What we know:
Helix content: 40-55%
Number of helices: 6
CATH topology: Cytochrome Bc1 Complex, Chain D, domain 2
Structural class: mainly alpha
CATH architecture: Orthogonal Bundle
Amino acid sequence: ADAVAETAAAEGPLASFGCTRCHYTERAGELDGPSLHDVGARLGRGELLSALVYHQGDDGLDQVTQAELQSLVSAMTELKGQG
């Protein structure tokens, strides 16, 4: 389990928080949820923060710190859908 956590941490906040289990981040298309590959081009920081704060799911987002939440938002703003 530690190796999995280390790999996820190395891949960034989206992997660390399990986003990549349900969302593609490098291409368009549905997985269990919509693709995030261009979310930073579609939504601003405030919209992303609101979406995460109001997210309903069993992924533990309700247990992240404010710093972790800001890190996740920052990572998502960089996803512009460019190759």
